[in-house]
Amino acid sequence: MLLNITRVSVVATEWNTRKDGIYKDAKDRGSDWAWQWRFGTPLTVIAGLDVMLLVVVIYLLVRESA
After folding, report:
1. Where does the chain cross the membrane (predicted)?
2. What DSSP letter does each residue of 5-40 carry, written as one string?
């Protein structure tokens, strides 16, 4: 039971860190899509942490093109 609570806490912390970090970075870069990165990235947690990390990598690749 305690292990499950710990996992949920880790996922929640990761989720908050990623959404805020990506949003702030996109907003600082003047991206019109910043709000979509903030809400879209955390939704990928439903598909799994590996998918969320893939989205973060995609963001890091496309942020230079904006």
Report:
1. 39-62
2. HHHHHHHHHHHHHHHHHHHHHHHHTT-TTHHHHHHH
